[in-house]
Design goal:
3 strands; mainly alpha; about 130 residues; about 45% helix; binds zinc ion; 4 helices; three-stranded antiparallel β-sheet
């Protein structure tokens, strides 16, 4: 048995986080899942060129998928914090850094860690 390299582990974790957020937003159809796979394979290449970027892949894949969704499906993820006004998407912060979060720039709040959007939107919360 070969164990996964740190790169594969990071990509695997990033993929799981982004998929969890897509499921929370109810947009994880086959098309969207293949966008995630596409981003994961691009980022695999990218980290091979720049190994220090391994800690940034979750935030980057989230942003890749967000961009692809904007073209094909529309804004994602919609802000769950602002109850009124125009619907708007959350942004990933930091754009290039570890421990990425979804933030609403309008309200100026951190909404959830990437991968934890389900809890923030109340989808599966049971508090
Ligand atoms: Zn907002």
């Amino acid at each position: 048995m070969e164990s996964l390299s740190p790169l594969e582990q990071a990509l695997h974790a990033a993929r799981a986080l982004v998929l969890a957020d897509l499921v929370a937003g109810d947009v994880a159809d086959a098309d969207v899942v293949s966008m995630v796979e596409e981003s994961v394979s691009q980022r695999r290449w990218w980290v091979e060129q720049w190994p220090d970027g391994v800690h940034y892949v979750a935030g980057l894949i989230a942003q890749d998928v967000q961009d692809s969704l904007l073209d094909r499906h529309g804004r994602w993820p919609l802000c769950p914090v602002c109850g009124s006004g125009d619907p708007h998407a959350l942004d990933v912060e930091p754009e290039l850094g570890p421990d990425p979060h979804w933030v609403c720039h309008k309200a100026g709040v951190k909404v959830a860690a990437v991968g934890a959007l389900g809890r923030a939107t109340g989808g599966t919360a049971s508090s």
